[in-house]
Amino acid sequence: MTQNNTSIGNANETLATKFLEQNNFSIIERNYYARKLGEIDIIASKNSVLHFIEVKSAGADFDPIYNITPTKLRKVINSAYYYIKERKLDMAFSIDALIIRKGDIELIENITL
Q1: CA–CA separation, 113 and 71 (whole Å)
Q2: Distance between CA 110 and CA 113 in Å, rounded?
């Protein structure tokens, strides 16, 4: 990722964090790295459910949901399991996508179903 892409990504994750907080999510962690398994953009909780959230955005000509490939989804899932095991947690969890399209934000819960 170039420096410019990193800056855009950080700005979008900050926007996503604010959106989640406004919707009663508690932010636990951002940019969690699970060793060589992968990264989770945002980990949050709401109503006793742990949410592992992948943030994606793109320009007007492309829907960013398509950037969540099967490979990327596997990495997020494996990282989520690692996080749960590492912290010895026993709670419900959800793998979610937060999509930013031209300033509009959509949270899609349980993208693995």
Answers
A1: 16
A2: 6
pTM value is 0.89
Asked if 96 and 41 touch (Cβ cutoff 8 Å), the reply is no
Q: Taking the C-alpha atoms of 64, 69, 72 and 73 in order, what is their torsion angle to the nearest 10 degrees? A: 100
* CA nearest to 40, candidates 11, 77, 65, 3: 77
What domains does the chain contain, in order, with CATH numbers? 3-108 (3.40.1350.10)
CA atoms of 46 and 23, how far apart (whole Å): 9
pLDDT in tens, 30-88: 999 998 899 999 999 999 999 999 999 876 677 888 889 999 999 999 999 999 999 99
Look at the block and give the residue holding tokens 């900050």.
Answer: 14
Q: How many CB atoms lie within 10 A of CB 67?
A: 14
Strand locations in 1-113 (E): 26-33, 39-46, 49-58, 92-101, 104-108
